[in-house]
């Protein structure tokens, strides 16, 4: 027998939430209060609770209970899905109780909840274009990010009319948990955060609403404090990979240009995913006197990476700290390496931690945020000739080999394909030189091959993007300079 949308939604709340049959009338009345009474008895063919929620939001729009703006509808949708989401206290009790006997199950249950309650936007994420491209550095991953909807001009105009607020201070603050949202701040009624201790600091563990990889997690300081790469960073990253089996955890660097998009709130990212950089081999093994327990080496990667591995966390932290301190003050003007200029510090590190069996691993990616007259966007930033594909900062995720490319490329790359097939005479201006070079290289190309050709070409450009961001270039001169820094730190090269 067909059941109405509201009855089926309440069925789902009872089946998947903390409610009993006795709660049915109460739940139906609360849902009607949010979406209105007209239209709720219509039949539904929705397959999931999230789809039922979407139908109820559409009814609310018709009833005038919510506006036309997507931001307004997201607030209502999050409020509806909050019914199926346990309270923060319950979520944390369930997580840590389960963790005592089975850490992997505790993590899986929290991830599943974050998907079922529509905090992780599974449907939106599925819209992303994703593929891999073989390169000399391994299989680089390409994502064209279509999951986040573009801002409606009406929403932008409405946001300007909203009274300014400093609550929450940013998207990563703990105060987002359960926040209703507003036109200029996302809805978070169904958001939950696991509390944990990292040393003496209180931190939170949550998932990213728009995940770029499997189990894309965010770890955030419960205090609104700026990003900072310090010895404590290395300790906390290693503690997290020990706490969460199978996860990598890394940090964006703490400087503009070389860092991520949010430098005002200290946070890390992690998840259950193997990036190309992790698979990359040690190209130059290195040893360090006094750290015989730590194996080290320069990684074969377009960016400048020193990998450390040991069963001894304390030794790893001590050596990583030494490398960080030496790098912050190191200059080598012969290869345009400059620690500071005009009182501005240029050097920092993007660190990534893993645990494999009993061994801990730290990748330290050397970063430099200098600018120059030739490269005002950044000397070690995507150069102008590749910015038609990637112009944004190279953050943690890109560093490891996953390109996050802008939505505009979906249509623009289709234009390039049409150009190669002779179906159009030109493409978007900033792609024209690249498209001409491809057309010369592939003078005769079939319709069934053109997408692959363009995708592979994008992958090669992303490889160049990473090379641009690499402090030490993959030339004899660049690698010799990298080894000079190793000698400065105290690392001694083995078996060249």
Structure description:
This protein is α+β, with helices and mostly antiparallel strands. The chain is built from 16 helices and 16 strands. The strands form 3 sheets. It has an 11-stranded antiparallel beta sheet. The protein has a 3-stranded mixed beta sheet with strand order 1-2-15. Strands 11-12 form a two-stranded antiparallel ribbon. β8 (282-288) and β9 (295-299) form a beta hairpin. The chain is globular, with a radius of gyration of 25 Å.
Concise overview:
It is built from 16 helices and 16 strands. It is an alpha+beta fold and 496 residues long. A hairpin with a 5-residue loop joins strand 9 and strand 10.
Which key features would you list for this structure?
496 residues, alpha+beta, 11-stranded antiparallel beta sheet, 3-stranded mixed beta sheet, 16 helices, 16 strands, 38% helix, globular
The helix/strand class is alpha+beta
Kindly report how far apart the N and C termini lie: 74 Å
User: Strand order, biggest sheet?
Assistant: 3-4-5-7-6-13-14-10-9-8-16
Low-confidence stretches: none
Per DSSP, the total helix count is 16
Inertia-based shape: globular
Q: Over all CA atoms, what is the radius of gyration?
A: 25 Å
């Amino acid at each position: 027998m067909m059941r109405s949308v509201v009855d089926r939604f309440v069925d789902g709340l009872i089946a998947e939430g903390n409610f009993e049959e006795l709660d049915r009338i109460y739940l139906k009345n609360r849902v009607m209060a949010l979406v209105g009474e007209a239209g709720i008895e219509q039949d539904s063919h929705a397959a999931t609770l999230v789809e039922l929620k979407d139908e109820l939001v559409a009814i609310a729009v018709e009833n005038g209970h919510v506006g036309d703006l997507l931001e307004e509808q997201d607030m209502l949708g999050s409020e509806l899905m909050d019914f199926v989401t346990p309270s923060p206290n319950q979520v944390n009790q369930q997580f840590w109780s389960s963790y005592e006997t089975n850490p992997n199950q505790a993590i899986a249950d929290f991830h599943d909840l974050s998907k079922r309650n529509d905090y992780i936007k599974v449907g939106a994420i599925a819209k992303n274009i994703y593929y891999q491209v073989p390169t000399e550095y391994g299989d680089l991953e390409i994502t064209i990010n279509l999951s986040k909807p573009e801002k409606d001009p009406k929403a932008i105009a409405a946001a300007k009319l909203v009274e300014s607020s400093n609550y929450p201070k940013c998207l990563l603050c703990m105060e987002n948990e359960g926040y209703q949202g507003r036109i200029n701040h996302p809805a978070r009624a169904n958001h939950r955060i696991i509390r944990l201790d990292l040393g003496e600091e209180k931190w939170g563990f949550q998932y990213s609403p728009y995940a770029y990889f499997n189990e894309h997690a965010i770890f955030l300081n419960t205090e609104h404090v700026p990003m900072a790469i310090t010895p404590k960073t290395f300790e906390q990253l290693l503690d997290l990979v020990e706490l969460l089996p199978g996860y990598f955890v890394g940090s964006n660097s703490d400087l503009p240009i070389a860092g991520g998009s949010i430098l005002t709130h200290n946070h890390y990212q992690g998840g259950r995913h193997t990036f190309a950089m992790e698979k990359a081999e040690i190209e130059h093994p290195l040893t360090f006197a006094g750290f015989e327990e730590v194996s080290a080496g320069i990684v074969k990667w377009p960016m400048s990476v020193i990998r450390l591995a040991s069963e001894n966390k304390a030794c790893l932290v001590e050596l990583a700290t030494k490398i960080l301190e030496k790098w912050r003050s190191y200059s080598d003007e012969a290869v345009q390496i400059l620690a500071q200029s005009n009182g501005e510090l240029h050097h920092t590190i993007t660190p990534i931690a893993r645990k494999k069996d009993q061994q801990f691993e730290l990748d330290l990616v050397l970063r430099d945020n200098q600018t120059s007259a030739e490269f005002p966007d950044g000397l070690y930033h995507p150069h102008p000739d590749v910015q038609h594909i990637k112009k944004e900062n190279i953050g943690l995720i890109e560093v490891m080999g996953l390109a996050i490319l802008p939505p505009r490329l979906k249509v623009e790359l289709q234009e390039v394909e049409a150009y190669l097939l002779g179906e159009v005479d030109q493409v978007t201006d900033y792609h024209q030189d690249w498209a001409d070079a491809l057309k010369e290289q592939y003078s005769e190309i079939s319709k069934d091959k053109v997408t692959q050709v363009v995708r592979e070409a994008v992958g090669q450009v992303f490889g160049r993007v990473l090379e641009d961001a690499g402090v030490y270039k993959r030339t004899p001169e660049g690698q010799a300079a990298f080894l000079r820094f190793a000698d400065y730190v105290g690392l001694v090269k083995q078996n060249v």
